[in-house]
């Protein structure tokens, strides 16, 4: 029966859940990356949010049949070691009411297949690498700048993790001499997230970057921090392309000063034939837009069952 259903509907379906600080995006995708269903819900306390996720996926199950697997990309920190008994457990997250929630256990009823987890930014990186701006680029880095700052590093198509997943947003970078803001990171104060993420912009100027006129001092200051972050990542990972996404980077006026500062900081030293000659093609926005995260989560599900075949 399931084979007939898959044939009639165009192949197996895979569920993806992107769990963000303010909203959750649920999606259902085919193995070629076509997103056939998408729903957005508000991130609230764990219990009602998870109930709503399960309800959305249950409705889609009635329409399309069971998803073969489910992938979730989430805010962290989260245990990513599949061999650990705590696999999928959210740790000391700034989302205090989500601490101790095990996403693998909570979402197990949504599919008869495996449930796999990854960080939200690693999920977005995977989505862009599979179907977007990172296609054919290895190594590849995706940096998101929004409520927080995070980075996903893919090598050989897989996210780099070690004792924990990398936290590029908590890197320390040189402070701009004119910047007197103490920093807004609850853990580190003036790391790059504390100095350049969305809340730090509002704390300084009382408005989001999108609400400030082009040429405002905010663009110069934020580009200073983001360019240093990008340069540190470029010199460490040597990626073939870097994507800058997230709500703050949705301001086109920010890309130009970031690119200019990256070139100035590199000083023609590193891969000039690639970076200096084509900075617009090297440091780019996401091609999948707001669907990078949910498609990346679905890609995780596909990979959990032999690439979705």
Describe the structure using short key phrases.
single chain; 309 residues; alpha/beta; Nucleotidyltransferase, domain 5; five-stranded mixed sheet; 10 helices; disordered N terminus
Describe this structure in words.
This protein has 309 residues and is α/β, with parallel strands linked by helices. The chain contains 10 helices and 10 strands. The strands form 2 sheets. Strands 3-2-1-4-5 form a 5-stranded mixed sheet. A 5-stranded mixed sheet has the order 8-7-6-9-10, with helices on both faces. The longest helix is centred in the C-terminal third of the chain and has 21 residues, at 217-237. The chain is globular.
Radius of gyration: 20 Å
**How many domains, as an integer?**
2
The total of helices stands at 10
What does the average pLDDT come to?
93
| Contiguous runs where pLDDT drops below 50 for at least 5 residues | 1-8
Name of the CATH class of the largest domain: Alpha Beta
How do the SSEs run, as a string of H and E?
Answer: HEEEHEHEHEEEHHHEHHEH
- What is the H level of CATH, i.e. the homologous superfamily of the largest domain? ATPase, nucleotide binding domain
Task: Quote the CATH topology of the largest domain.
Answer: Nucleotidyltransferase, domain 5
Give the strand tally. Answer: 10
Provide the structure class. alpha/beta
Q: Give the strand order, joined by hyphens, for the main sheet.
A: 3-2-1-4-5
Under the CATH scheme, the architecture of the largest domain is 2-Layer Sandwich
Strand content: 15-25%
Q: Which outline best applies? A: globular
Distance between the termini: 18 Å
Q: Percent helix among the residues?
A: 25-40%
| Major beta-sheet overview | 5 strands, mixed
């Amino acid at each position: 029966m399931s084979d007939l259903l898959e044939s009639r509907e165009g192949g197996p379906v895979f569920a993806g859940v992107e769990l963000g600080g303010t909203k959750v995006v649920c999606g259902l995708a085919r193995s070629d990356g076509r997103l056939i269903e998408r729903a957005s819900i508000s991130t609230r306390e764990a219990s009602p949010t998870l109930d709503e996720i399960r309800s959305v996926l249950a409705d889609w199950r009635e329409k399309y049949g069971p998803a073969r697997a489910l992938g979730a990309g989430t805010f962290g920190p989260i245990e990513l070691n599949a061999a650990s008994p705590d696999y999928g457990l959210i740790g000391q997250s700034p989302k205090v009411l989500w601490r101790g929630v095990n996403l693998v256990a909570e979402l197990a009823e949504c599919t008869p297949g495996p449930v796999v987890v990854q960080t939200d930014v690693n999920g977005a990186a995977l989505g862009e690498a599979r179907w977007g701006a990172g296609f054919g680029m290895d190594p590849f880095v995706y940096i998101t700048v929004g409520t927080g700052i995070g980075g996903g590093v893919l090598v050989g198509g897989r996210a780099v993790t070690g004792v924990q997943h990398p936290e590029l947003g908590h890197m320390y970078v040189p402070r701009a001499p004119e910047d007197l803001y103490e920093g807004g990171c609850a853990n580190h104060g003036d790391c790059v997230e504390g100095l350049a993420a969305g809340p730090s912009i509002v704390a300084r100027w009382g408005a989001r970057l999108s609400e400030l006129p082009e040429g405002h001092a905010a663009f110069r200051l934020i580009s200073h921090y983001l360019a240093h972050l990008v340069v540190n990542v470029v010199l460490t990972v040597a990626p073939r392309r870097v994507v800058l996404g997230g709500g703050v980077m949705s301001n086109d006026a920010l890309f130009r000063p970031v690119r200019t500062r990256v070139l100035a900081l590199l000083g023609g030293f590193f891969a000039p034939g690639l970076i200096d000659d084509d900075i617009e093609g090297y440091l780019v926005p996401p091609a999948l837009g707001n669907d990078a995260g949910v498609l990346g989560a679905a890609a995780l599900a596909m990979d959990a069952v032999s690439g979705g075949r």
